[in-house]
Design goal:
Rossmann fold, 320 residues, elongated, 6-stranded parallel β-sheet, alpha/beta, disordered N terminus, 19% strand, 2 domains, binds alpha-L-arabinofuranose, 6-stranded mixed β-sheet
């Protein structure tokens, strides 16, 4: 445990005495006076923006000083940001790793500096899971499986599918592909006829689909690893004279507001929610890690599936 955290713990009884009843201490949460570095992956999607806002908002509410870095989709920027936070002596680091591999050296540097690292949203592949305090994320394999099961049911197990993958090497791209493939395995007439990355971006989803719809006019379904790419693909399908939502079924993952609007408009058929509002869980974990508590290696965020028929009723409840 870092010296600063030890000092905080030592002072805790004194601080509680000063507040009288600790539960009525107003904003005096244990996050107060913490300085946390948040190494965000980028701003490629509406989901990512919602995650950034959730973490920023939670830091403000807890009186945490947050140092924020946007890696703009480049792992080297993110590694630099983590090194910068270590050099500044932050109390803990929140990291949303762009890709799964390549983290061992910088995580070892954080460990040597006794700075706990809380992973949010995406996991890493390392030889020793003691290099990070905990991971708070959705089960991406299950999300892919849910999308496949929905499509199998909707099509009676028969579909020519174009898959739009997320960022190569990113945990959700790897796992959502795996989950979907597992889900369609029992349906020999469900075939992925083309699969390409759109980097989780709306513009790239559109661009990739423009080419793929020309090469594969026999498609009957699109499976996109996130809503933004699906929304881009919908534009490309329409431009190619197809009717997304009707002659081409579209299923994606995230559950952002624009996806609900597209479902309400009949262009998107289904979205599997992936909750980006990770701020409260992330700072609960940070506080425990800074206090030297051992955390479970993974906390799985629960996701739900929404179909077009639920969109109008659900839209007013969407928080992102
Ligand atoms: O890691 C979560 C994924 O990253 C979201 O599904 C996607 O929209 C984002 O960019």
């Amino acid at each position: 445990m870092k010296k600063r955290a030890l000092l905080l713990l030592a002072l805790t009884p004194f601080l509680l005495t000063q507040c009288g009843d600790g539960s009525k201490g107003g904003d005096s949460s244990s996050s107060n006076s913490l300085t946390i570095g948040f190494a965000q992956a980028g701003a490629e999607s509406a989901w990512r923006t919602a995650e950034t806002e959730s973490i920023t908002r939670e830091a403000e509410q807890r009186g945490v000083t947050l140092k924020f870095s946007d890696a703009q989709g480049k792992q080297e920027n993110q590694i630099k940001a983590v090194r910068g936070f270590i050099a500044q002596g932050v109390d803990a680091i929140i990291l949303a790793p762009i890709v799964e591999t390549g983290w061992e050296p910088v995580l070892k540097e954080a460990q040597r500096a006794e700075i706990p690292v809380v992973l949010v949203d995406r996991g890493v592949q390392v030889s020793d899971d003691g290099l990070y305090a905990t991971l708070i994320a959705s089960d991406f394999v299950a999300e892919g499986q849910m999308a496949a099961d929905w499509l199998a049911k909707k099509t009676g197990g028969k579909a020519n599918i174009i898959e739009l993958q997320g960022t190569p090497g990113a945990a959700p791209a790897i796992d959502r592909k795996k989950g979907f493939e597992q889900g369609i395995a029992a349906h020999p007439e469900m075939k992925i006829i083309a699969s390409q990355s759109g980097d989780f971006r709306r513009s790239q989803g559109k661009e990739v689909m423009e080419a793929l719809v020309k090469a594969h006019p026999n498609l009957t379904a699109v499976y996109a690893h996130n809503d933004d790419m699906a929304l881009g693909a919908i534009q490309a399908l329409e431009a190619a004279g197809k009717k997304p939502g009707t002659d081409v079924l579209v299923v994606s993952i995230d559950g952002v507001k624009d996806a609900f609007i597209a479902m309400k408009d009949g262009q998107l058929n289904c979205t599997v929610e992936c909750n980006p509002l990770l701020g409260p869980n992330a700072f609960d974990a940070v506080e425990k890690a800074v206090a030297g508590e051992t955390l479970p290696k993974k906390t799985v965020v629960q996701d739900r599936l929404f179909e077009a028929s639920q969109a109008a009723a659900e839209l007013p409840n969407r928080q992102y």
